[in-house]
Amino acid sequence: MIVQSLAFYVFSAILVASGVMVISARNPVHSVLYLILAFFQAAGLCVLMGAEFLAMILIIVYVGAVAVLFLFVVMMLDINFRELRSGFLQYLPIGGLIGFILLAELAVVLGAWIVAPGAAAQVAAPAPPIDQVTNTHALGMLIYTHYVYLFQAAGIVLLIAMVGAIVLTLRQREGVRKQNIAEQLARRREDAVVIRKVPTGGGI
Amino acid sequence: MAEFWSGFLLPLIIIVLQILAIVVPLLVAVAYLTYAERKVMSAMQLRQGPNMVGPFGLLQPFADGLKLFAKEQILPAGANRIVFYMAPMLTFLLSLVAWAVIPFDYGLVLADINVGILYLFAISSLGVYGIVMAGWGSNSRYAFLGALRSAAQMVSYEVSMGFVIISVLLCVGSLNLTAIVRAQETVWFFIPLFPMFIVFFISILAETNRSPFDLPEGESELVAGFMVEYSAMPFALFFLGEYANMILMSAMTTILFLGGWLPPLDIAPLNWIPGPIWFALKIALCLFVFIWVRATMPRYRYDQLMRLGWKVFLPFSLFWVVLTAGVLVAFDWLPR
User: Fold this and answer.
1) B114 by DSSP, 3-state: which?
2) Domain residue spans of chain A
């Protein structure tokens, strides 16, 4: 038990510290690297709680794909940090407001737990007990049976967002040379090569 | 004190010894993989290969290691020191930690976790960070170009790798690596899922930045790509990491498609040979194909690489996932 709580405090401390570093690091690439560190600590916390599936998905999706593209973009940008920093105080109120709303929501969720301990038993589709099925199974059972329509709806929203992003950035350009494999393969020798007899001094 | 000994210290010592029992043979295997690559490639190109250091040149890897140890470490001007040195360490570390979940025989595994295949996939998708950090931290254009290529390449091929893994998982019904191997007792998955096996193998060539997809290194146009500024031990760590990754990916192929530690047929002379030896033989076969491909194929062009990943492999593997699921449901073969 001591080892678990020790691990919990180590993970949480590094998580909070790297979260602070994300917003306070001077170099944006360092910020993204700290963000990745924060994802890792969050995954560690998930493993500690027995949610190993969520932990692995967090690493595969966020660290393995999203943060790579993030890093990709940030590395190539040429940002003037002093300019960026001058607007910091301007956005402080709205950032503070969002932070406060999130904190209040967390307090409401945790408060419900403490005020009415029976509230957890009232959920529409309770999670199966963790000692009978692995949490991958438990998640699958909840998502694909009770919440299948919501799950599909979320998928459609993401698909539309993806299509929208492509539509917004796609521009038709004229005169671009593209490789057309089928055309290349369909090309015959007769279309490309002509053999002629060239008389001496005559030319073609 | 006795409780402390039996509760903490003894398990800790046992785990450390188990880790050493995996890592030391792995590092020896990495050293001899470099030797094998040079020997096999030289044989394919009608050359001798290394043959001076020790009998048949067998001590060549150690001579190379010693040489790299003795060289000078150079930090490029304007390089980001921490990121620059963290990149090779990360690459090497990631190629080692993944071995924690690889089952060498039934029950012979360091950590038999439920989501083993996801863990392997997560670790292999992190490999790109070592390269991107190296490219950015070096403060060099060639290295940066190599890193950018590598980031795009590895992210693209991971997608089709994910679909291949899903189609295997549909046939197994578990994410546990031991369960995946045991599901192949009747037939190895490379027979029913043969096209997926090919897609997976080509994807791991791209994932490990091996020829014909070695554009991140691209020595003819980028000198050595992301590792151009590295020398001595940091370079050696990249080198070791790349080869350890090759062995890891071969082990993954073996577990997913070639039946892990299982003998080809469960008959008398074949099943006398212990499982780990079968496992090692299958890995060696995959590694041979890695080297064979390198000695045979010219390098892909970058747009061809992207086209293959996104326009060929992705639709095909997506189709095959749907087909596998459809067949499994139609014939009621779904694993319970």
Assistant:
1) coil
2) 1-79, 130-173
Number of H helices, E strands in chain B: 14, 0
A-chain residues near B125 (CB < 8 A): 59-60, 63-65
CB burial string B307-323: b at 16+ within 10 A, e below = ebbeeebbebbeebbee
Q: Poorest-confidence range of A35-49, A77-91, A105-119? A: A77-91
Say what the pTM is.
Answer: 0.85
Candidate from B119, B147, B151 with C-beta closest to A56: B119
How far is CA B253 from its chain centroid? 9
Q: Is the pLDDT of residue B219 over 80?
A: no
Q: Would you call A59 and B122 a contact, using CB atoms and an 8 Å cutoff?
A: yes
Chain B CB contacts of A57 below 8 Å: 118
Residue B178's H or E segment, with its range, is helix B177-182
Task: State the nearest Cα–Cα gap between A68 and chain B, in angstroms.
Answer: 7
Pairwise CA distance, residues A167 & B138, whole Å = 36
For tokens 């090692």, the residue is: B280
**Could you give the ipTM of this predicted complex?**
0.81
Question: Token pair of B316, please?
Answer: 């095909």
Q: Which of A56, A63, A65 sits opposite B118 (nearest CB)?
A: A56
CA A138 – CA A115 distance, rounded (Å): 27
CATH class label, A1-79: mainly alpha
pLDDT in tens, B28-39: 999 899 999 999
pLDDT band of residue A38 (cuts 50, 70, 90) is very high
Q: Which residue of B has its CA nearest to A3?
A: B8
Q: pLDDT tens across B223-270, in order? A: 777 787 888 888 888 888 889 999 999 999 999 998 888 888 777 787
Helix/strand/coil (H/E/C) assignment for every residue in chain A: CHHHHHHHHHHHHHHHHHHHHHHHCCCHHHHHHHHHHHHHHHHHHHHHCCCHHHHHHHHHHHHHHHHHHHHHHHHHCCCCHHHHHHCHHHHHHHHHHHHHHHHHHHHHHHHHHHHCHHHHHHCCCCCCCCCCCCHHHHHHHHHHHHCHHHHHHHHHHHHHHHHHHHHHHCCCCCCCCCCCHHHHHHCCHHHHCCCCCCCCCCCC
For residues A99 and B156, what is the distance between their CA atoms, to the nearest angstrom? 35
Question: pLDDT, tens digit, for every residue of B156-204?
Answer: 888 888 899 999 988 888 888 888 888 888 888 888 888 999 999 999 9
- Partner-chain residue, chosen from A36, A68, A136, that has the shortest CB–CB distance to B114: A136
